[in-house]
Amino acid sequence: MEKAKNVELTTEIDRQLNFYQKEDQVLLAVDCIIFGFDKTNLKILLIKRNFEPEKGKWSLIGGFLKKNENLDQAATRVLNTLTGLSDIYMEQVYTYSKVDRDPGQRTISVAYFALIDVDSHQFDGIQIDSARWFDLDEAPNLIFDHEEMIRKAIARLQRRAMTMPIGFELLPEKFTMRQLQNLYESILDKKLDKRNFINKINSLDVLVKLDEKDMTVSRKGAYLYVFDKEKYEKKVAEDGFSFKL
Amino acid sequence: MEKAKNVELTTEIDRQLNFYQKEDQVLLAVDCIIFGFDKTNLKILLIKRNFEPEKGKWSLIGGFLKKNENLDQAATRVLNTLTGLSDIYMEQVYTYSKVDRDPGQRTISVAYFALIDVDSHQFDGIQIDSARWFDLDEAPNLIFDHEEMIRKAIARLQRRAMTMPIGFELLPEKFTMRQLQNLYESILDKKLDKRNFINKINSLDVLVKLDEKDMTVSRKGAYLYVFDKEKYEKKVAEDGFSFKL
DNA sequence: GTTTTTAGTGTAAAAATAACACATAAAATT
DNA sequence: AATTTTATGTGTTATTTTTACACTAAAAAC
């Protein structure tokens, strides 16, 4: 149900529901929970605010929705402005609306999460000087309801990781099984059995094993894999796709 | 990240992200996907609009967020105004923001779903004359993006039904196993095996079998059950709660 | 050549899920 | 009084999925 404008209001309910005043308009913000992975740990990107209110405190990056864009576009724009990155997986999580969440002024904020492979993307954005990656468990206190946003985003990420090949967004194109397992262990925040993990992943049949090895971490070297997007798409179309670890 | 108001803007990024104009303010609506169950079928409550735009067409019920309330409160108020009901389970689903979703004017809408036991609640709300329950598969065409909202709400309901005792919100206090199975079959949109269903539900150990029987449907009568909320709360605190059908 | 480190591999037990059919109660009908 | 009708209620077995678990191999470092 949207708007009634200057139309005559016929009933009491119209008066209550469909009548609005100019002063009921609000500012809509987007805040981005940016997850990154650096081959070992799941991290989150935060910035130190150099503007009021709460100047000097850490917060999520965010910005305001403009009249000529939708929320997905706003989130993409905000991320791009800060990091210079585009073509990043983003997903809307939840809309926060407590009346006094921003003590300065009534603002409603829509939270988005983004997934970035830390090593492959060098930021060329502005403002990178005041931004920093934090391990999930050592993030500083944040302003407003941003910590609540992060908690919900983590829960969403955990669920998505089991039903979509979303994890691969966080990895470089070529990765080892160990890196993939590290990633899932970081996301789910629990240890996994190596053999069971590999068996499960292989049974999904969406990875291609390369002849190439990664020699950076072990003396023996570990085979590299790539995600086979086509195979995955086909699978989704046929059976769906979902697994459990 | 919220607002910058009249504060001096120090960097280019501040200018891009933290500067806003009065004209970037928008109207925020809530739209309610109201699910009901009448002992056999899952239904949805729609109203025929008697106001512009799209007067005469069917739509979800909705209204505008007011300055002094949060979104949960707005959704509760809208539902109460239309149906007279209070104390209803509601949950935020997703925020819709396509620029031209409402052709008349820029409006962003936050969708909520609500669960109601159709038989136990007699509506004393205003406007009930233009509202009607529809079976899920025979709902009429709806305005704007309301059909998309419903699709997403159904998906959410299906997920919730497996991790929360949310189904019981849709049933009268006392219900038969058959009614419970009908409900889950409606929500999941698939047939379930009677014996496996009963075994599974019993293994969850959150229902109390009464000595009383429901005689309305069978000559033999079927035992009535009630949901044991305390037992459930305890279980959640200990093990969590989640099942599969 | 000895040590160190990570990669890589298979099986068996346990648990969860899926498949499946008939007897019973009680009212309604004849 | 006997028969028909209708929905209830109940257990076991096979299949699938998940979990637990330990050793060898490769290569570099010393």
UniProtKB/TrEMBL annotation, chains A, B:
SUPFAM superfamilies given in the database record: Nudix, Winged helix' DNA-binding domain
Domain Nudix hydrolase: 27-158
Record's protein name: NUDIX domain-containing protein
